[in-house]
Structure to design on (108 residues):
């Protein structure tokens, strides 16, 4: 559902409202889904994807790190599936860190 509100849908329009919606969704997820880590992690992953598409790599990284933390404590997950998922998200975080560093150097 949230992936459908990505920046490509905005078609060049101002994305301030989209960012506000994402920020509020992130806060609500932390409060309202704390007893449902699987659902919370999936939605945080989606928020991280949308933040990444918006070019807000710092917020994307934060959401993905929290999603990894939640997924790593999920009871009953298959170890190999979880390990693959964590590895994929960790690679994305490293990519986001590199992009953040590149942007900081460009603006310095």
């Amino acid at each position: 559902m949230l992936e459908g509100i990505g920046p490509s849908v905005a078609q060049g329009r101002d994305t301030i409202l989209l960012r506000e919606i994402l920020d509020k969704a992130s806060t609500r997820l932390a409060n309202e889904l704390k007893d449902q880590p699987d659902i919370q992690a999936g939605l945080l992953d989606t928020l991280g994807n949308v933040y990444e598409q918006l070019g807000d790599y710092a917020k994307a990284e934060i959401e993905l790190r929290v999603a990894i933390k939640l997924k790593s404590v999920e009871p009953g997950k298959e170890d190999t599936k979880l390990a693959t998922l964590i590895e994929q998200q960790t690679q994305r975080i490293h990519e986001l860190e590199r992009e953040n560093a590149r942007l900081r150097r460009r603006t310095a």
About this structure: Residues 14-107 form a domain with the Serine Threonine Protein Phosphatase 5, Tetratricopeptide repeat fold (CATH 1.25.40).
